[in-house]
Amino acid sequence: MSNPKYLRRRVINLFNMAVAIALTGLALFFLGWILYVLVVRGIGYINPALFLQSTPGAGIPGGGLGNAFVGSLIMSGLGIALATPIGILAATYLAEFGQRSRIATVVRFINDVLLSAPSIVIGVFVYGVVVEPSGHFSAWAGAIALAIIALPVTVRTTDTMLQLIPDQMREAAIALGTPRWKVTVWIVYRSSLAGIVTGVLLAFARIVGEAAPLLFTSLGNQFFTGDPNQPMAAVPQVLFNFAMGPYENWHQIAWAGALVSTLFVLVLMIVARLLSASSKR
């Protein structure tokens, strides 16, 4: 106890631990504050009309977010359907074949850059390569923008999950004469399935709350539509417009929609964490 080095290390350890606990408490405080405000302001306006009626026009009372909920599910579903196979195949190359090669290093660097790219920049990019050549806004353009946002998340999480599989499992299967592609499909994928699904859920939770790229791609629609070739409403985009609007019923719908969206993402994150925890057992 009288050793000066020991006392110094112990003081530094206690200081770092106190700072970490204080900052964690600060983050939890603001998170709890956000949830409290959403529940207080939004819970009173959650009713069947919110899910069944379409978004109201300017100055029209009532209405809901039914068309926006449907549009968000369609575009997010299309986006994750486009991003998942590409992301899994890219991660398979990185973890199983590229590993630490120069090409794999470059691909991982580009993926990290894409992971941190502002979503509004991706929206402008898709506007230039999809919306302008086609001559109109559409749900397909929104889905492509969301797929570009989901892709690096899928690649990063799947790459990490595949690298956690011990090489001894691959070597044992190859020693028995199993082809490499069968080792990847039947052993590596099966062993990391829960982790891959977790990554896909995290990517879905990431894109379902995006508003900026949809302003340049799907634009929005006041009515119900299931046609991906037409402009389509999405919850984040409607919330942005309603929150900026001057009408009281728009503000009420925006608070209720924000609460429902937050709870939906929270459930997705809990499911992803449970799957991730089960894969580590």
TrEMBL record:
Its main location: membrane. Coiled coil: none annotated. GO terms for cellular component: plasma membrane. Residues 69-272 form the ABC transmembrane type-1 domain. The keyword Secreted does not apply. GO terms for biological process: phosphate ion transmembrane transport. GO terms for molecular function: phosphate transmembrane transporter activity. The keyword Flavoprotein does not apply. Keywords: Cell membrane, Membrane, Phosphate transport, Transmembrane, Transmembrane helix, Transport. The chain crosses the membrane at residues 12-39, 73-97, 109-131, 137-155, 187-208, 253-275. It is found in: Cell inner membrane; Cell membrane. It is a multi-pass membrane protein. Belongs to the binding-protein-dependent transport system permease family. CysTW subfamily. This is Phosphate transport system permease protein PstA. It comes from Acidihalobacter ferrooxydans.
